[in-house]
Amino acid sequence: MVLQTIPARIRWAVDIMDLQPNDHVLEIGCGPGAGAELICSRVTAGKVFAIDRSESGVDRTKRRCAQYVESGRLTVRQIDLATLRVPVKRLTKVYAFNVNLFWVRDCADEVALLHERLLPGGSVYLFFEATRPEQVPMIVEKASGSLTQGGFRVSVVQRRNPAVVGIIGKRIG
To answer: Which part of the chain is the Methyltransferase domain (predicted)?
Structure first.
């Protein structure tokens, strides 16, 4: 199977997730579908659920990942995280790239929903590409704080070129 072009920053982020064939993954903000495509290529026995508030993002992901949608391995919905009802009983991983919700406003309700739906030991992977390097400490502080307050143990990873920061929250309890 030949994958469409997937940016190096997305490949790096998905590699960090250490996806397993039977994972159940939620992608928040699927946009053009590059992340969903790469995740689906690795999650061969589990399920992937991708959401986006944008109708065009959902349409692009459905087109790009049509084979996964048709096989039932990928479900794509236009919805925001606050009103999400996850169709799988429990998630093992949550992925988001450049979803500013986690650092621009209070997201306690959304983080609580993720904590409730993740299996113990499951993880949230939040990645941000910093357009201005001076933003990185603030993004890390706010997103890490949101996850920590929501019951996650947080670690941070960075990639220098392009400047991408990953905040990883492992569910405690």
So the answer is: 25-122
Model pLDDT for residues 21-62, shown as the tens digit of each residue: 999 999 999 999 999 999 999 999 999 999 999 999 999 999
Alpha-carbon gap, residue 44 to 113, rounded angstroms: 25
Q: Give the Cα separation of 145 and 44 in Å (integer).
A: 33
Task: Please state the domain count of the chain.
Answer: 1
Cα–Cα distance, 110 to 150 (Å, whole number): 9
Q: What is the model's pTM?
A: 0.93
CA distance 130 to 153: 23
Gap between the Cα atoms of 19 and 16, Å rounded: 8
- Residue 46's domain comprises 8-171
Residue 1 domain-assigned (yes or no): no
* Residue keyed to tokens 């919805």: 79
Show the tokens assigned to 167. Answer: 């905040």
In the sheet that holds 24-28, the strands lie side by side as: 74-78, 47-52, 24-28, 91-97, 118-129, 164-171, 152-159
Largest CA distance in the chain: 43
